[in-house]
Amino acid sequence: MNQSSRRDFLKTSIVAATAIAGGSARAANTPVKRVRKAIMYATVGVPGTTMEKFKILKEVGFEGVEPMSHMNQDEVLAARDATGLEICSVCCNTHWAKPLSSPSEDVRKVGLEGLLHTLRDAHRYGASSILFVPAVVDKNISYADAYTRSQAEIRKALPLAAELKVKIAIENVWNQFLLSPLEAARYVDEFQSPWIGWHFDVGNVINYGWPEQWIRILGSRIQKLHIKEFSRKRRDTEGLWKGFDVPFLEGDNDWPSIMKALGDIKYEGWGIAEQGGGGTKEGLRSLSEKMDKIFAS
Q: Tell me: the pLDDT tens digits for 33-45?
């Protein structure tokens, strides 16, 4: 980043932060209108067909589900219609293996096709957005290249998103990319399109930040929420990934502060569980009941 670009970035970040701070102050103590309860299909570990799993999810109290892309559309639709579960989002299943940040044009092409396929899945299911990881940074893929390559490829998908009226929602994950909320907001804003936003994962931030701060900065860019826990203590004593191995309400999420921040930005939409414990019907029921407690914080 050259000196001029750095100045522009800092100026944009400061303006954004100031506007967000002002908005939060005006909206102080605003209650969350309603967070609807859903679950990520990939975390549902009970055996059975799509129909059988949907029926269990409905029975234990979920209102919606987030399927993976590239599933059998007819099966998903049949299960949706039979149970009344809503398809709130669709998670792209190609973005990790075929990232848009790859130096290989062939890999990026497959990744873009995966993104377009996910948009089409969501449109058929009636979902308003998709979950998408835009890039991966590693020793061989620089941060700068990940930024420019991923934006270039996503721009190719925006016309279809607009045509189908399905938003591309970028998720914060452990991909070594978009590591601050100011940068995350800037990345989305640079598209200058209403068809791209953010899919905010509460638990993924705990390792290096505070969800309530991200929520206030991302504001109305947030399309959907992933709800999960993370324990810094388990991370420090047992290893990084063990931080996720903690039940709802026993990690380091400050749920009252998180819910207050969601109220401050006037969030109204889906909270989607991506949490361990969904391997049995009883486990799924426990997740559903604990989400009720979280949303009532």
A: 689 999 999 999 9
